[in-house]
Amino acid sequence: MTKQNDKLVVVHMDVRKLKPEPDINLPAVGQAKLKRLIEEAVVDAYNEQEQTVGFLTMIQEHLALPFSANVLGVEVVVEKIDMTGDGQIVAVCRRDKIRQRIGILDLPLPVPAPAGAEWITAYHHWRKGF
What we know:
By secondary structure, the chain is α+β, with helices and mostly antiparallel strands. It has one domain. It contains three helices and eight strands, in the order ββββααββββα. The strands form three sheets. The protein has a four-stranded antiparallel beta sheet with strand order 5-6-7-8. A two-stranded antiparallel ribbon has the order 1-2. It has a two-stranded antiparallel sheet with strand order 3-4. α1 (31-42) packs across α2 (48-62) and α1 (31-42) crosses α3 (118-127). The radius of gyration is 15 Å and the shape is globular. Residues 9-22 have low confidence and may be disordered.
């Protein structure tokens, strides 16, 4: 069970791999591992904001940076992962001298995805109410 929005949520698992939407190229993660990642990220968090910070911390610690990504046909370098004032996890992308923040769940990852991208997959499924 995980705690989300101050309510206990019962998670039913089977052995399939959950495949995220193909347009953002998130790696497939088995349900048992997905459950472990989500529980690790939210273990000491009591509300949604704290749980989001838990995912931010895990993504920052495990995602191999920098890496290249293609955003709207333009190659960018993902330099770091950050959080906006309104609590959104974003990738800080750079092209030449221009920097842009892109929501981490809107960022098309390269194939193969960088090491640690399974944390983005876990965050994606948690946001959907896994």
